[in-house]
Structure formats: structure tokens, C-alpha cells
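Re: that chain you flagged

S.,

Sorry for the slow reply, it's been a week of failed gels. I finally had a moment to sit down with the sequence you sent. For the record, here it is as I used it:
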Amino acid sequence: MAFERGRFGLEYDPRQHEEASGGIGWVVAVVSVVALVSLAWSLVGRFRTRADEFADVEPSSENPNVAAGAAISPPAAVARPDTSPPDPPPPRYPDSVMAKRPVKLRNLLMRLEAAEKRRDVEMAVSTIEQIRALPGSPAADLDDSLARRLGTLNLRRLFDLRNAQWVKQITVKRGDVASRIASENGSTLASLAKLNGGSVDKVFIGRKMYVMDHPRFNLVIHRRTRTADLSLNGKFFKRYDIPGVVSGKEGTYEFPANPKTFWRSLGVEFKVSDRVELETLLPVKASVIVAEL
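Prediction finished late last night. Pasting the C-alpha cells below so you have them in one place:
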């Protein structure tokens, strides 16, 4: 508060307070203005600096985002999913090979290729059999590869497709056991298990089961070519390789119930997988022939 000496002694003077307050207000106002001016000047300086930077870069006529005189680098490659269809597989038999074949053989080979593309097993099998049966053997140079493809298809027809000409379905009766079912139908316990999903432990009355319908398997072992051809019901079924020399004597043999030492007695050694497959297919007393050719 402001006091001063008056006529009546010390007196209060409110104007002095207003003058002091007014002076402080002017000071605050001046400081605020100076701060605002400084802030504005700073912002203007920044904008000028950015403008100078852009002024130094003169856009070219072709690419406005590239400085004049600068090397233009190609745009970075963008990884995109490959939506183009896959390249078709090359034909199994080139035109140069097909041109030398008789017309009938060419047609059958094209039919075989179409059947394999469609995964038509039955059509592929019948086509290979027709090719191998052509008079004069015009496909003699292809016969081995055709025989091996036919063997793969035949195995699929037997165990996966359960072809009706080899396989039938039965209903388990009272007193039936797996070994008896296989024996009564001229097959093996191993093939019975494979035809029925690998499990024949639980054979109960009324169960539906697939069995081989009295197959007539024969195996011919060729000493010179070191191959073995398996036939089923008089028709070629599959070809197997023999890694070593066949030392057994020529002749006809019966496949035994226990084949553990049978192959050794014939002087024949198969790959393990092929031996297991043959023992799955060949029933007891099936013919095994050792031939020179």
C-alpha cells in the first residue's frame, strides 16, 4: 500500500498502486511481444533454409524428383507373387524320336502320355499292354521302361484300387481267422493285411474284408539280364532287378512256406524291399523258374 503525508497526517493514496501496476503490465506486454517476434523470426528462418535447399535442386524434365546432372538409377525391383502358370513338363518322347515311329505306335504313346496326365490308371495300363503287344516290336527300345511303369501301375491297382479282376470282398464267418482266410483264397497273410489297411489281428464275425481271389503268381528269373519278371494269371505284372550274378541252376522250383533260405539256394539276391514285396505276393507252391535268358 502507498502512504503519504497529508493535511491530516499519513494518508493512503490508491493512485500510486495503480501507477506501479500499470508499469509492470507494460513490462510484461513488451516481453511477450519480443518473445513472439523471436519465435516468428525463428520460424521464418527455418522456412527460408528449406526453400534454399529446394532451390538448389533443379528438377530434370524427365524425372522431377531427381537433381539435374545426377545419375538416374533404375527403380528398385518390387517382389511380386508369381501368378504365371507353371511351365508344362517336357514331352516324354521328343518329336525327333516320335518321327521315327510307326503311326500306330505314335498314337499309342500320345495316348499313354494323356492318360498319365489325367492319372487314369486303367487307360495307362491298357495302353502299355497294347504297345508291348504290337507286331514286330516297334517299341523294343522302350520295352524295359514300359515294363517298369506297368509294374508300378499294377501294384497300385492291386493294393490301392483293389482291382476287381484280382480282388474280391468277403464276409468273415464263424471260425475264420486271418491265416485261414488267406490260405483258402490262395493268397498270403501279408497280402491280406496290406489289402485291409495293415491290420488283421481282430477278425470278427460279419467283418467285410478284401482278399486276393486265388491269384496264380509265377516268377521267372533271367540269369543273363539279371532281372526277374513276375506274372499274375498269365499276364506280366512287374519286373525286378537282381543286383548280383545269378548262380543258381536252371529249373523250376516251388516257393516254400519259409522262404528265409530259398533265395540263397537259388543263388539270387534281391534288394530288401523287392524281396519283401515278392514274399508278400508269392503264395506257397507258386512257380519260380530260373532261365538263361
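What I noticed first: DSSP finds nine helices and nine strands in the chain.

Talk soon,
D.
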